[in-house]
Amino acid sequence: MDGDAVLTIAVLAAMGAGLVSNRLSPAAGVLGATGSLFLLRVIDVDQAFGGFANPAVFAIGSLYVVAGAVTKTNALQPVVGRVLDRGSRNRAALLRLLVPAGAASAFLANTPIVAMLVPAVRSWAERYGQAVSRYLIPLSYATILGGAITAIGTSTNLVLGGLLESAGYEELEMFELARFGLPLAGAGLVLIVVFAPWVLPERRDPEPAGEGRSYLVSMYVAQQGAFDGQSVEAGGLRQLQGVFLVEVERQGTVIAPVAPTFVLRGGDRLTFAGRVDLVVDLQAMTGLVSAEDPHLDAVDSDDHTFFEAVVGAASPLSGRTLAEAGFRGRYQAAVVGIHRSGASVEAKFGQVRLRNGDALLVLAADGFDERWRNRNDFLLVSRLGGSPPRATRRAPVALAAVAALVVLPAAGVLSVLEAALIAAGAVVVGGVLSPREAREAVDFSVLITIGAAFGLGAALQEAGLAEELADGIIAGFDFIGDAGVVLGIVMAAMVLTELITNVAAVALVFPVALEAAGQSGLDPRTMALGVAVAASASFLTPIGYQTNTMVYGPGRYRFTDYLRLGVPMSLLTLVLLTASVSVAA
Q1: Which of 38-47, 388-397, 413-422 has the lowest mean pLDDT?
Q2: How many Cβ atoms are within 10 Å of 176's Cβ, its own excluded?
Q3: Is 57 helix (H, G, I), strand (E, B) or coil?
Q4: Burial 487-518 (b: 16+ CB within 10 A, else e)
Q5: pTM higher than 0.70, yes or no?
Q6: C-beta separation of 210 from 204 below 8 A
Q7: Which pLDDT value is given to residue 306?
Q8: β-sheet bridge partners, residue 307
Q9: Neighbours of 475 (CB within 10 A)
């Protein structure tokens, strides 16, 4: 072993120690290691930093912009609503959640998908009295599995495509990974649905210190929507936690109390009473439309959210109805709920004469609290957050960009990079995202990690370590034959992705896989595909993959909770991937 090999091992060991101990971020660790290898003359400047000019970096950046447009417009919200706003429980609910989440992550970055779904799943679990800990780890794992199906499903696959092109191979085709990723995704989802309710703990958010203010809101059943023709119980409206269906008004007739078997019809006016945070969630339920929707349309835009405002004695609102006070014109906001302590409030807000101490649930633009906090109009204004009740009208533009991103490369019309750039440009030119929002949608730390990771793979090859590691894998596993070589490569990728990052893992194992394939007579491209799928299979820790980290806090998990489902998932991946790659190679 020469001096360059020793230096490379030392630098990689230092990087691994920094990443495992969380003293270094992935971007700092990988860039620092690549820069050190350049300064130590192990690799030249092109090998060290040429990765930043690789098409994968630009493709991934473009995908972040497209995913940001989908997230901003809530373009997937109708699907999410239909999946979650039902009374399904346990395995049925898991299946309804995981299949579309996994399918979506095959074509969009799984990080924004999880970011969008976690609040929705938490709200759904709270409404129906479910433990969110039973759903969030499965959600993360499902998006990981879905990402292994296509060339754009995860940054790991795009990096592999860049590595293949750098090594002189043809571009990775859109569904080339599906022959390994799709069977694994199917088997993995079955395992999750069967075992997750058994092995995952039931941990719930602590109960609120008090019931808080109970707001009264009115919603209409949308014509031909999710609740039209459903009974109250079948639609899940009877099992809501912290929200109570007070009455139903149909063509002027009020039904109260409402029986569980009562069948709802489009146009029914439902009156709910409940905690303010859960009342906000009602505004986003698919199949229900706020009774104040005509007023909302006049003030709703992409930067709107919910606030709570308390009427003061000196307020010009006191003793007047919302219409008399010209609330919408004066405050550029709309009231969607009212709380009044110790007295009932009519459901039709236009008839309510406001009193000192009334609390209003208000939809308004960001900055509403700053503008009115120190005025006589309100004693108190506080921001509640939450998305506005309607998706932006530009959601079709975002969905069209996603469709083009998938269809054009799959049909061979454009490369993945060309389609990604066009899709990203379309959502900016189409007004879905402003240039500033497009910049903010891109996670530049990920791009830095990816660009620098190419240098690590080059260092392994330049120092001769790729060949030595391939020799070691073949010598250690040759008693099993070709399957043993594949097993060694898959295990290396899976272990490294848990210890460092998926991007660094694929960059390090790729040259080793090519060497091992060349020495054993296996197909190098097939081996490389197996490396990409294995490098995404992070199921054992909350730090191995971004989506695992994202659900850690919201699910109230402990570190060891990931092992409960992660161990069988990892064993399944190891066995299934080794077998399928061995046959194909």
Answers
A1: 388-397
A2: 19
A3: helix
A4: bbbbbbbbbbbbebbbbbbbbbbbbbbbbbbe
A5: no
A6: no
A7: 81
A8: 362, 383
A9: 10
List the structure tokens of 258.
């409402």
The answer to whether 90 touches 134, Cβ cutoff 8 Å, is yes
Buried b (16+ CB within 10 A) or exposed e, 369-406: beebeeeebbbebeeeebbbbbbbebbebbeebbebbb
Task: Please tell me the distance from the alpha carbon of residue 523 to that of residue 517, in angstroms, as a whole number.
Answer: 6
The confidence score (pLDDT) of residue 490 equals 94
Report CA 515 to chain centroid distance, whole Å.
Answer: 36
Closest CA to 273 of 295, 250, 294, 247: 247
Q: What would the pLDDT profile of 188-236 be if each residue is shown by its tens digit?
A: 999 999 999 999 988 775 554 434 567 778 888 988 888 899 898 888 7
- Which residues are CB-neighbours of 366 under 8 A, at least 6 positions away? 303, 304, 305
Q: What is the Cα–Cα distance from 254 to 259, expressed in whole angstroms?
A: 13
Give the C-alpha separation, 521 to 519, whole Å. Answer: 6
Could you tell me the two tokens for 441?
């949608």
Count helices and strands (H / E) in the chain. 25, 9
What CA–CA distance (Å, rounded) separates 309 from 381? 4
Q: Using only C-alpha atoms, what is the Rg of the chain?
A: 27
Place of tokens 């023709």: 229
**Can you read off the two tokens belonging to residue 101?**
């989440």
Question: Beta-strand (E) ranges in 331-431?
Answer: 333-339, 359-365, 378-385
Looking at the chain, the whole-number percentage of residues with pLDDT higher than 70 is: 87
Task: Return all residues near 107 (Cβ < 8 A) that are at least 6 apart.
Answer: 150, 152, 153, 402, 405, 406
Angstrom distance (rounded) from CA 141 to CA 105: 11
List Cβ neighbours of 494 (8 Å cut-off, separation of 6 or more): 534, 535, 537, 538, 570, 573, 574
Q: Which residues, including other chains, have CB under 8 Å from residue 324's CB and lie 6 or more apart?
A: none
